[in-house]
Amino acid sequence: MSAVVLVGSQWGDEGKGKITDYLAEKADCVVRYQGGSNAGHTVEVDSEKFMLHLIPSGILYPKTACIIGNGVVVDMGEVLKELQGLQERGIDTNNLRISSRAQVVMPYHKEIDAIEDRCKKIGTTKRGIGPAYEDKISRTGFRICDLYDPGFKERFIQEMERKNLLLQKIYDAPGFAVETIYAELMEQAAQLKKYVADTSLLVNQVIKDGKKVLFEGAQGTLLDIDHGTYPYVTSSYPTSGGACIGAGVGPTHINRVIGVVKAYTTRVGEGPFPTELNDDNGEILRTRGAEFGTTTGRPRRCGWLDAVILRYATRINGLTDLAITKLDVLDSFATIKICVAYRYQGELLYEFPDNLSILEECVPEYIEMPGWQEDITKIEQYEDLPSAARDYIAKIEELSGVRQAIVAVGPKRSQTIVSHQLF
Length: 423
What we know:
The protein is an alpha/beta fold. Helix content is 32%, strand content 21%.
């Protein structure tokens, strides 16, 4: 039995989709365990690009079981749209299963999300994710299995009346037509019914059978609701501990935790970012790395690699291995910097602070390393990388205390160098 959790070690957008896609070829089952359609994975196969938001990247392998776990909030319309898009491109989707316990993102969640973000300025995707998780915690949400319950309509009407009052009286916004939304939900539920299952049972059976399972997180460590840069975070647990809750498996089943780390650092939305570059170097990273959100298209903020963040992610997630992505984006730099500490009011901080007002004033302390200034996108063996590139990777290993297992030198499947097999 081999169960591996794949997590983002920064603010998300680390290239988890590519690594998941690569590992999914060897996995028997891929499980998405948290988040919603606010996340996005771009997978490039040959000359084709696949943009996935809810469906696990393993869907491109017909023999790999793909599961949307109970920890995900599911926009049924988005799932159906993704399914249609995949099917139109000849991808078999019969290997997908959706947890009957997953919460449903309702149309009013999106409306509330958009209204509230105009006030809070958190920088959400306005996909209704936060409000859906709020309803889950307040026990007023609906699970997918509820849609097939004979008593659902009565409960739904009561909740719609409550939500319409909230929209009209508090937000001064129009409400929703109850019957219209109900009919839409019933149609979507009917179309998805063949995919709905007790996925915790399925995953545990796969593990019991000694097969290989990959747990796929969305977003990244610093967007975790507890351990991220709160309040500029997501509404779920993208850290490794969230895999057990979001998939319905015990922690004793997890063997390895892979941290995906971009060779530099990016983030989307509001919040402090110590190594952010608002200069030509930042623009080079953005342009060469195609740093625009899969879900929103928003340009990502770019900066040098932050080892303080990486050490923090190592501790929070219990990382056993690193998958370093987009190393090729650094090809053109003569000098590359790594942040090894923060300077705050004359004091050096080596651990990531919990106070955002402190983080906002932190100035990065850098070390400099020579760049390699040559194209590495066609290199297939680790030993063939330029010595400066290998030195840079070795420094990442030293600063994080975690070995590298995978290095990506481009977006395609073929541009993946494996030093240690993880399955």
